[in-house]
Design goal:
The protein contains 12 helices and 24 strands. By secondary structure, the chain is an alpha/beta fold.
Length: 552
C-alpha cells in the first residue's frame, strides 16, 4: 500500500534586513516587523516560503490590500558567490564561504512564482508611499494559490505617517560605467540604443538616492591594467587639425541634459589622470587626418604633451560648464586612490593644471591624512575605516566611501555581510554630518583590471578579485532595464533613514535626535562601533517616525 504524504507549506513574514538562504530556516522575529514610513519613500519587507514535496511547484501570487496598487512584489534570487570575503573577517559576517547567496530582486512574471521543495525562498515586498495614500494603518496579505485555492498566506500591517520625507541633502555618487552597459548589451557606444539604456539606468539610479553622476569626458582610467584599455566611451569629440585641437561638446551636452531630465543634480568630471598615482594620461582618441587615433594613454606621461592638451581643453570645458549653468555643482577628479608613495607624481599632475580649475571643487578617494596635509586636494574622500583621523583633525563637510578595502569592523554591503551592516551607514552619516558618499561600482561588469568582460549573473566578484557585492549594485536585465539587489534597496533605506533623522532634527534639535540614537547604547556610535542588531535599526526608525508624527 502506497502512503500519500501530506504536502506542507510554510510562510514567514520577515524584515527587509534578513537574508534568506535556501538551506537555512529563517527565524520569525516579531520585534523586527513593525513597519512605518512617510510619504515620498518606499518601505520594504519580506515573506519567506517553502514547501515539503518531491519537485518544485509553480503557483499563483496574489496581493490583497486596500493599497495593492502601490505594492510591488519581487522574488529574491540566489546568485553564485565565489569570493565571499577578503580572508580577514570580524564577527559580523553571515557566511565566509562560497555558495549561493540571496541578492537579485526580480519582478514576478505572469503573477506566478516557484516554491522550491525543502528550500527556503523569499518575496521582496515594496510599498511605495505617496500622498495619495491617506495617513493610517493598512493590511497587506500575500497569498500563494493553486487552482484558486490558497495554499499559504502571510499578513502584514504597515503604518503611513502623514508627513512627506524631505528632499535628500547628501551628495551621493555611484560610478556608472557606460562602457559596461554597451559591452553587455552588445550595442555601439552612444548609439541610440545605448542612450536609451543609459536613460533606463539613470532613472533607477535617481529613484534609489543617486544624485551625482560621473561624466566620462574620456574613457574611464579606472580599474584598467597598465598597457590595456577599456571600451572607448568618450563624450568629447576631438579633431587634430594643423597641430591644433578642435573640441566638440555635443555628446557631453546630451549626457548632461539626460542626467538633468532624470533628476541628477550634481556632476563629477571623470579622472584627468590614471589611477593609483596619476603617472599617465587617460585614453584619449581624436580624428587625425580623417582617421581615429589614440593620441594619449599609457604611452604618454601625465606631464608633458598631455599638459598642453589640457591647457587647450580645460578652459573650453569650464566655459561650457558655466554656459550650461552647472559650474557650481560640478566636481573634478585628479586621480583615484593615491597613496603616500604616489605623492610626487600626484603633485606633479595637480600642479600641471595650474589655475585652470580655480573656482571648482577637486575631490578624490584617498585614505592618508599625511597625503592630504600637502594641500593637493580640496575635498578628500577617505574610506570609512580611515575617516576618523580626518575628523580628529577637525575637518568639516567631509565625504567618505567604502569599497573592497573596507572589510573589517566598518559598515559595507558585501553579500556575505548582514544587511544591518549596510543600513547602519545612514545613522553614521547623520551623526558625523557627512555631506557626500561615493562608491566605485554601480555596474562594473568587468574582471579586475578590465582584462575581460563578465556576466554578473554568473560572476559576482569580478573574477574572484573582490568580495561579491563590491563591483555592482544592479544587474543588467534582459529588457535593458536594471534589476535591483537586496543591497541596493537596503542602501536606499539607509538614505531614507538619514532623511528622516534630518527631518526630526529640523523639528527638534541635533541633541534630541542623537539621544534617540545613542540613549540606550553602552557606548557612542562611531564608524567602527555601532549596533549590530536588526531590531535596533527598525525600532529607531519607528521611534523617529512617531516623533515626527507628534509634531506635524
Amino acid at each position: 500500500m502506497r502512503v500519500q504524504k501530506e504536502i506542507k507549506y510554510q510562510m514567514k513574514v520577515l524584515s527587509s534586513l534578513v537574508k534568506v538562504f535556501p538551506d537555512e530556516e529563517p527565524v520569525y522575529r516579531p520585534e523586527c516587523l513593525k513597519l512605518s514610513g512617510l510619504w515620498g519613500e518606499t518601505i520594504s519587507y519580506q515573506v519567506a516560503y517553502t514547501g515539503d514535496f518531491f519537485m518544485r511547484e509553480r503557483v499563483d501570487l496574489k496581493v490583497i490590500s486596500p493599497v495593492a496598487e502601490h505594492v510591488r512584489v519581487r522574488t529574491v534570487e540566489h546568485v553564485p558567490v565565489g569570493r565571499a570575503t577578503n580572508g580577514i573577517v570580524d564577527d559580523n559576517y553571515l557566511r565566509t564561504t562560497s555558495g549561493l547567496y540571496p541578492d537579485l530582486l526580480r519582478d514576478v512574471k505572469d503573477g506566478k512564482v516557484y516554491i522550491r521543495s525543502r528550500q527556503w525562498s523569499s518575496l521582496w515586498v515594496d510599498v511605495k508611499l505617496t500622498d495619495e495614500i491617506p495617513a493610517g494603518e493598512y493590511d497587506i496579505e500575500i497569498q500563494l494559490t493553486k487552482e484558486d485555492h490558497v495554499i499559504c498566506s502571510a499578513a502584514k500591517k504597515i503604518k503611513v505617517i502623514g508627513a512627506t520625507l524631505p528632499k535628500q541633502k547628501i551628495m551621493h555618487t555611484e560610478w556608472l560605467h557606460a562602457d559596461c552597459l554597451a559591452d553587455y548589451y552588445h550595442v555601439d557606444v552612444f548609439s541610440e540604443e545605448h542612450w536609451e539604456i543609459l536613460k533606463n539606468y539613470f532613472h533607477e539610479y535617481v529613484d534609489r538616492g543617486g544624485n551625482m553622476m560621473i561624466v566620462p569626458l574620456f574613457t574611464s582610467p579606472l580599474d584598467t591594467a597598465i598597457g590595456l584599455e577599456r571600451t572607448t566611451t568618450q563624450l568629447i569629440g576631438i579633431e587634430v587639425k594643423d597641430g591644433e585641437y578642435i573640441f566638440n561638446f555635443d555628446k557631453m551636452k546630451r549626457w548632461i541634459d539626460l542626467c538633468k531630465a532624470c533628476g541628477i543634480e550634481y556632476f563629477e568630471m571623470s579622472h584627468l589622470f590614471s589611477q593609483w598615482g596619476a603617472k599617465y594620461a587617460p585614453k584619449v582618441v581624436a580624428t587625425v587626418n580623417g582617421k581615429e587615433e589614440k593620441i594619449f594613454g599609457w604611452h604618454t606621461p601625465a606631464v608633458g604633451e598631455y599638459t598642453k592638451f589640457l591647457e587647450k581643453f580645460l578652459p573650453q570645458l569650464t566655459e561650457k560648464l558655466r554656459e550650461w549653468e552647472i559650474a557650481q555643482v560640478t566636481y573634478f577628479h585628479i586621480s583615484d586612490e593615491p597613496r603616500e608613495e604616489h605623492l610626487e607624481s600626484y603633485k606633479a599632475a595637480k600642479e600641471s593644471l595650474g589655475t585652470m580649475l580655480e573656482g571648482f571643487h577637486t575631490f578624490d578617494a584617498l585614505s592618508s591624512y599625511e597625503f592630504y596635509k600637502h594641500g593637493l586636494i580640496d575635498k578628500p574622500i577617505p574610506g570609512n575605516n580611515e575617516i576618523e583621523e580626518f575628523l580628529a583633525h577637525g575637518l568639516k563637510d567631509m565625504w567618505t566611501y567604502y569599497c573592497t578595502g573596507q572589510f573589517y569592523e566598518v559598515s559595507n554591503r558585501f553579500m556575505s555581510m548582514p544587511s544591518a551592516r549596510n543600513r547602519i551607514y545612514g545613522v553614521q552619516l547623520y551623526k558625523y554630518d557627512i555631506i557626500g558618499i561615493l562608491h566605485w561600482g554601480y555596474n562594473f561588469y568587468n574582471s579586475q583590471f578590465s582584462i575581460e568582460h563578465i556576466n554578473p549573473y554568473e560572476v559576482t566578484d569580478s573574477g574572484n578579485a573582490f568580495p561579491a557585492g563590491d563591483p555592482f549594485l544592479v544587474y543588467p536585465g534582459s529588457d535593458r532595464h536594471p534589476e535591483e539587489s537586496i543591497r541596493m534597496m537596503v542602501h536606499y533605506e539607509a538614505l531614507t533613514d538619514l532623511r528622516a533623522l534630518e527631518y526630526l532634527e529640523s523639528l527638534t534639535s541635533k541633541e534630541f535626535v542623537m539621544d534617540l540614537i545613542e540613549g540606550d547604547l553602552e557606548e557612542p556610535i562611531t564608524f567602527r562601533k555601532y549596533p549590530k542588531s536588526d531590531m535596533y535599526l527598525i525600532t529607531l526608525r519607528n521611534r523617529v517616525n512617531r516623533e515626527i508624527e507628534k509634531r506635524i
